[in-house]
Each structure stands twice: as structure tokens, then as C-alpha cells.
Design brief:
The complex is a heterodimer of chains A (312) and B (422). Chain A is mostly helical. In chain A, 74% of the residues lie in helices and 3% in strands. Chain B has a two-stranded antiparallel sheet with strand order 1-2. A two-stranded antiparallel ribbon of chain B has the order 3-4. In chain B, helix 5 (107-126) packs antiparallel against helix 10. The chains are: A mainly alpha (312), B mainly alpha (422).
């Protein structure tokens, strides 16, 4: 029981962190048709900027300022980097974001070194908020869940219920038509890219404090965020939300369950050796592979993802 | 130079038959270079670097078969390299343990077979999609295999990897693989053989078709071919050659760890092929040479060598998508047409502006690296400290000067190397 509840909570937490990253990426993905390799790098930038600014101006101002700065950086990258490259096709765009991810990691190493930086949350948030089965649960985790859920709500309302949201949705699928109607489509794209990056930055400010703030943090999360976007379906916010939670739960539960493949096989009546090379592999060991297995299966059998309207 | 002319790929068009001498000359030159290199750089470090270059040349060429000639962007090419390498490594161990009469010299063939087989099995689901989904599937498979690599300890050796001894089994051509110098001849032979084979592949009907599938997959079925099948076959061959490079690595390093499957290896081969140039057959060779040299020489001088590789890559993606090879081709075209004399000043000024820009960037980066705890930067009798404004001002001035000059040159429409291709 205890294990289940905590796995649920941790899965929820991890899933919501994934959602904070993938919400922006899924919009950018459906806009460009190309996955932004550097998206997780903006997440990393957010964490590092919040760490750097937090020392000067405190955590709360940094919580707002760091995502804004990351968003501006993202918009500039779109305007002066991605837009000129767009003329050379999808592969060139993909290569550009790939190079950008590489470059941002090196720049982070340049300014903050290769070791993790001691980025911590303020004391108000690090105290326990409730006790469950004699284990305390830190307030910061609840804070993160609230922020992520708020983000989902606000984004959903913004996209579905406002004029600007309608314009963005239209520009994602029919950019030429929207252009003919007299809207500035490149500006919309730049704004969406900037907002997406800002959201990733916000995820970084919060995620960097819960996980570790180090130069490898983008690489450890980046590929999984891709999985979320592809599994959820292109451009679908709800799909990204569901897929994030699904993958979050999948990974935490696989780690929490101590069983090995052999145990599972014996459970269904196939007698095998408990500690063989293959049967001794535990689900916890397989956990990091699960999202990618899901990615490959989804791309092959259901290319539009769980809730996407179009094929990837 | 017209727009059409400029948009043409750097590769020679199909059907243009050059004289036999012109076709053989590059290979003779390549062989001569391979033969001469050990006498020019006879040191131990020289051999180490040259062997690493050789392995990466084959690896990058096999990658270009996918991306440059097949239009398939793969983020998991390390899988085939690694699987080929481990197959060769296990064979090497078996030669030792079971005293098999198989020469170690031929192990890259085992790598080739393993890569081909793995490409045939895993390539089937991978090649069902093209474009971005293809890239994503290769990324997923790459991560899957990388995770699996650490899991199966008896096959991949876990964290410690698998070790082998290359001085076993019968000798071939009387070549002693013990010293680095001996390994060089082994590497040189396989580089030449693999490059020749891959070039020959581009001349086969399948190689030609892969260009068609890259450029216009919708039209290919109209001439009676299935693009998915073409991609699958090309993918298998490319995986085979990646495995061959892995086999060379197994013999050269005598140790392989599952880290070889990582995104770092896959990313590196992409960087090498792209920086060298995807449009020309020899492009990835230039890229592999440059990146390995940067890796091994630059890393002695600066912590920031990876940053420079990244900057070079981004600069090329944005301003010269044809890579280094497109510059070589541009020069060669001008020489053929005989107007290189008129173009030379534009090239020279472009190169100068680029040098100024690069110097500025290097200065800024080096100062930034020294900002936490490093010493001063000593350059040409000048001592610059990260604490002083002087170095930063010079750096920013150089960068703005170089960038301004480049902008001015490209604006004026000079068709130099720095000009943006249409």
C-alpha cells in the first residue's frame, strides 16, 4: 500500500515535470513539423539562470524572470537561427536544433563548470507539508504539481477559448490560409516558439531544484520528452498531458516493482531459473528502456499518437 | 553563376563519363597518402591518431550512405558500429580460446556481417517510415540498445566491457599486429577497401536509386521501384559498413564497452559527416580527419574544443550546408572554368574576415573559461586576464569586425566560399 501510494505520487510528480516540458514542445513540433532537439536545453538554461539569479535577487523573482529570459532567448533563436535555416528543409532544421543542444550544453559548461551546482529551493518550500505512512512529503513537490496543473489549465483555456489561441491553432495547421487572412504568421511562430521555450525554462527553474542542476540534465530528460510528444500526438495538449502521466507512472512503477522477468514468467506458470542472464533482469533495470520501446511501437503502429489529429 | 548551377548537388551528375585516368587518380592519390603517412608521422601518437582517423573515416562514410545519399537522418548509427565491434571482439576472444585458424586481419568482415544482419533485422521496422519519424525511430532504437548494452553483461561486458588480444591466430601477409605501426597497415588496408567498396556502391543501380529516393520518393514508384525497399536495402548496407568500422575499432583498441552505443557516438558521426559535407563522396573523410584532429590535438590546449566543434557545426548548418566539401568543389569548379583568378580576391577577403571572426570568438571563449579560477591568457607577448576589460574589448571588437566584414562581403554578392548558397 505504502509503495503504491508513493509510487503514484512520484509518478505523478515525474509525469507533471515531463508535461511542463512537453507542452511547449508539442506546440513547436506541430508548428515546424520538426522536433526541437534543443527544447530540453532551454529547460537546463532555465535551471541555471534561476540558480545564478537566485543568488542575487532571491528565488521568487527568479521564478518569473528566468523563464522570461529563456523565452526571449528562444524567440531570438527562432528569428535569427531557425527561420533562415527553414529554407533548407526539415533535415537542416533538425540538424540546427541538434547543434544548438550541443552548443548550449557546452556554453553551460563554459560558464558554470562541469560539476552540478548547488541549486536549492527556499526554506519555505523545503519543509514538509504532510506526513504519509510516517514519511514526510516536501512542500516543494506539491508546489511543482500545482504549477504544472495551473499551466495545463491556463494553456488549455488560452488555446481553446481566446482569439489568440484560435489564431495559433489555425496557424499550426493552415499557415498559408492564416497568412492570407492578414495575420503575421512568422510573428505567431516566433511567439509560440518563445512561449514554448519559456515554459521549458519554468520547468527548469522547478525541476532543477527537485532533480540535479548539472550540464547533463538536458540530455537525460530530452529524449524522454520526445517520446511524450510522439506518444501523445502532434500538437495535442491533452495528448501530451496524458502521455506524460502515462510515462511518468510507467517508469516509477517499473522501478518500484522489484520483480524480475523470471518472476513474472513463473507467475503465469512458466518455470524458469530465477537468476539467469535473461530471466534475472528486473523490471527496475528495464524501466529506462520502456519509454523508447513505447516510442518505437507507437511510431510503427499508430503514427498519429494517442490523441494526435495528424500523422507525425 | 546561375541559380540553377548553384543549386546543383556537388556530386557529379549521373551519366557524365570522365576519362579513366580522372576516375582512377583520386584513388591512386589516396593510396599514396596512406602509404606515405607512416613515414611522415612515425611517432606513437601519430599512429594512435591516424588509426582513430581511419576507423572514423569508414564510420562517417557509412553514415553518409544513409544521410547524404539516402536522405535518411539517423540518430542511432552507433548501434551498428557497436554491434559489429562486439561481434568482432567475441570472434577475437574465440580465436584465442579455441585456437581457431582465422586471421585477426579479417575480423572487420565479421563486423560487416554482424552489422548487416542487425541492420536487416532491426532495419525492417525502422525503414517502414521515412523523414522525421525515421529519425525518431532511430533515436528510440539507439537509446534502447544503449540501455540494453549495460543489461546483458555476458555479451557486452557491463561497465568494464570486453577485452581481447589482437596478437592471436594466424598472420596474414606476414603483418605483425602487435605494435601500433602494424595496426596502421591493417587500418589503412580496410579504409582503402571499404572506401572503394562504398564508392562502387554509389555506382550500382541501387546506389543510384537511393539518390532518387532521397530527392523525390513520390516519383520513384512510377519507374517501378518501391522506395521503402530501396531505403531498407541501403540501410542494411550502411549498417554493414558501420559494423566493419566497429570491427576495426575492436582490433585497434582491444577493448569495447557498452558506452560505444551511446548518443555521443551517434552524434559524433553525424557531426563528422555533416561538417565534411554530405554532397560529395569524400566529404565525410574530410570531416572525420578534422574532428579527430580537433579531438586529439585541440583538447591538449583548451577545455573548450567541443564548443568549437559545435560552433563550426552551427556555422556550417546556417551558412554553408554543403560542408567543407562544398568549398573544395567551389574551388575546383572555378579552376575548371578558369575564372579562379577573378574569384581569388573575394575568397581571400572572405577567409580573412572569417579568420578575424574566429579569432574574436576563440579569445572570448578562452577568457570565459579562465573566468573561474584559470590563469591569464598569454598570446603573442600579450597577457590578458579574465578580470580585465581589455581582453573582452579586443574579443568583442574582433567578432564585430569579422561579422561586419562577412556581412559586407556576402551583401555585395561576391560568390566566395562564404556566400550563402541559394
Amino acid at each position: 500500500m505504502e509503495v503504491v501510494v508513493f509510487s503514484l505520487l512520484n509518478g505523478l510528480l515525474y509525469g507533471l515535470l515531463l508535461f511542463m516540458l512537453s507542452s511547449g514542445l508539442t506546440l513547436i513540433f506541430s508548428m515546424m513539423g520538426v522536433l526541437n532537439f534543443a527544447h530540453a536545453s532551454f529547460y537546463m538554461l532555465g535551471a541555471y539562470l534561476a540558480y545564478a539569479m537566485g543568488g542575487q535577487i532571491g528565488f521568487w523573482p527568479a521564478l518569473f524572470l528566468a523563464p522570461v529570459l529563456v523565452g526571449v532567448a528562444g524567440a531570438l533563436v527562432e528569428r535569427y537561427g531557425l527561420r533562415p535555416v527553414h529554407a533548407n528543409g526539415h533535415v537542416a532544421e533538425l540538424l540546427f536544433t541538434f547543434g544548438l543542444a550541443y552548443l548550449i550544453e557546452e556554453i553551460v559548461k563554459l560558464f558554470w563548470g562541469k560539476q552540478p551546482v548547488p541549486y536549492r529551493v527556499p526554506d519555505v518550500l523545503s519543509q514538509p507539508i504532510f506526513t504519509l505512512f510516517e514519511t514526510t512529503y516536501p512542500a516543494f513537490r506539491v508546489f511543482m504539481m500545482v504549477v504544472a496543473l495551473l499551466m495545463f489549465g491556463v494553456l488549455w483555456l488560452l488555446l481553446k477559448r481566446t482569439r489568440a489561441g484560435l489564431m495559433i491553432q489555425a496557424a499550426l495547421t493552415h499557415p498559408h490560409m492564416v497568412g492570407h487572412l492578414g495575420h503575421n504568421v512568422p510573428l505567431i511562430f516566433m511567439t509560440v516558439f518563445g512561449i514554448g521555450c519559456a515554459l521549458a525554462g519554468l520547468a527548469g527553474v522547478i525541476g532543477g531544484a527537485i532533480l540535479v542542476t548539472e550540464p547533463g540534465m538536458a540530455h537525460s530528460l530530452g529524449p524522454i520528452v520526445f517520446v511524450v510528444v510522439v506518444v501523445g500526438g502532434m500538437g495535442s495538449l491533452t495528448g501530451a498531458f496524458v502521455a506524460s502521466l502515462l510515462i511518468g507512472m510507467l517508469q516509477t512503477f517499473a522501478i518500484a516493482v522489484g520483480a524480475s522477468i523470471g518472476d513474472l514468467l513463473r507467475l503465469v506458470g512458466i518455470p524458469v531459473a530465477p537468476h539467469g542472464e535473461l530471466t534475472g533482469i528486473t523490471l527496475a533495470q528495464i524501466a529506462p528502456m520502456l519509454p523508447f520501446l513505447l516510442l518505437v511501437l507507437i511510431l510503427i503502429f499508430r503514427p498519429r499518437g494517442l490523441m494526435g489529429a495528424r500523422e507525425t | 553563376m546561375t541559380a540553377i548551377d548553384r543549386a546543383l548537388p556537388a556530386m557529379r551528375p549521373v551519366g557524365v563519363r570522365s576519362s579513366p585516368l580522372a576516375a582512377v587518380a583520386p584513388w591512386l592519390l589516396g593510396a599514396a597518402i596512406l602509404l606515405a603517412l607512416p613515414f611522415v608521422f612515425p611517432s606513437r601518437t601519430g599512429f594512435t591518431i591516424m588509426n582513430a582517423i581511419g576507423i572514423n573515416v569508414v564510420f562517417a562514410l557509412s553514415y553518409n550512405m544513409l544521410l547524404g545519399q539516402g536522405g535518411m537522418l539517423s540518430f542511432g548509427h552507433a548501434v551498428w558500429f557497436g554491434l559489429g565491434g562486439f561481434a568482432a571482439m567475441h570472434m577475437m576472444v574465440a580465436i584465442d580460446k579455441l585456437a581457431l585458424p582465422v586471421p585477426v586481419f579479417l575480423l572487420p568482415l565479421v563486423g560487416f556481417a554482424a552489422g548487416l544482419l542487425a541492420g536487416a533485422v532491426l532495419g525492417w521496422p525502422i525503414c517502414r517510415r521515412a523523414g522525421t519519424p525515421f529519425a525518431m525511430i532511430t533515436l528510440g532504437i539507439g537509446e534502447l540498445i544503449a540501455a540494453a548494452g549495460l543489461m546483458f553483461v555476458t555479451v557486452f561486458g557491463g561497465e568494464e566491457g570486453i577485452k581481447g588480444d589482437r596478437v592471436v591466430g594466424p598472420m596474414l601477409f606476414g603483418l605483425d599486429l602487435g605494435p601500433q605501426g602494424g595496426v596502421y597497415w591493417f587500418i589503412a588496408f580496410w579504409v582503402f577497401a571499404a572506401a572503394l567498396a562504398m564508392w562502387a556502391f554509389t555506382r550500382t543501380p541501387l546506389g543510384r536509386l537511393s539518390l532518387a529516393v532521397r530527392d523525390n520518393p513520390d516519383r520513384v514508384p512510377f519507374i517501378g521501384y518501391d522506395p521503402q525497399r530501396v531505403r531498407y536495402l541501403v540501410f542494411m548496407v550502411a549498417s554493414g559498413f558501420a559494423g566493419l568500422a566497429g570491427g576495426m575499432a575492436a582490433v585497434n583498441y582491444e577493448i569495447l564497452t557498452p558506452q560505444i552505443f551511446g548518443a555521443l557516438t551517434s552524434g559524433n558521426v553525424l557531426l563528422m559527416a555533416f561538417i565534411g559535407g554530405l554532397g560529395a563522396f569524400y566529404g565525410p573523410i574530410l570531416g572525420a580527419v578534422l574532428i579527430v584532429l580537433m579531438q586529439s590535438m585541440l583538447s591538449d590546449y583548451t577545455e573548450g574544443w567541443q564548443l568549437y566543434v559545435g560552433l563550426l557545426f552551427m556555422g556550417l548548418v546556417m551558412f554553408a550546408p554543403g560542408g567543407l566539401a562544398s568549398m573544395v568543389e567551389g574551388g575546383a569548379r572555378a579552376v575548371r572554368r578558369g575564372d579562379w583568378r577573378e574569384r581569388a580576391p573575394a575568397w581571400a577577403s572572405g577567409a580573412l574576415a572569417f579568420a578575424v571572426l574566429a579569432a574574436g570568438i576563440v579569445l572570448l571563449v578562452e577568457l570565459a573559461f579562465r573566468a573561474h579560477g584559470g590563469g591569464a591568457l598569454r598570446l603573442a607577448g600579450l597577457t590578458l586576464r579574465p578580470g580585465d576589460a581589455m581582453g573582452w574589448i579586443i574579443g568583442i571588437a574582433l567578432v564585430s569586425l569579422g561579422a561586419g566584414l562577412l556581412r559586407l562581403l556576402t551583401r555585395r554578392g561576391h560568390d566566395g566560399d562564404t556566400a550563402r548558397p541559394a
